[in-house]
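Re: the 139-residue chain
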Amino acid sequence: MADHHRAELVTDALNMAVGRGDLKPGCIMHTDRQEQRELLAAIGIEEDQELVAARAVKAATPRRSQAERFQQGLEALAQYVRKVGHAKVPRTHREAVQLPDGVGTVEVAPGTWLNNVRARRAKLTPDQLAQLETLGVAW
């Protein structure tokens, strides 16, 4: 919904829908905006608990810096190159890469990562370009 819509307009429309029987109290909804969640809860519309749990997991997951993401993509590409001998990675291929803290792994799609890196080539540092070239990345 556009930001210019007032909260009152939304709650009025939802109250009308509840009054007409279009929305039953206890129906499930989803929104990413806290203000909308509060307004909907006030008229008896509950949030989907699976989405609430998924949001909590995502919020608890530490964010990785661009440098960390680059290194993970580079490691996934290096693993692929060691296996097959070239850097022409299918977009759908996945590699398990060890997390920086050494506890667990993350799946990286080196083909997709490489495609994104190529699109942002102008923003790469000389060191990053050199690392890619040593793996045989063709521009």
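Helices lie at 7-20, 34-42, 49-60, 66-84, 110-119, 126-134.
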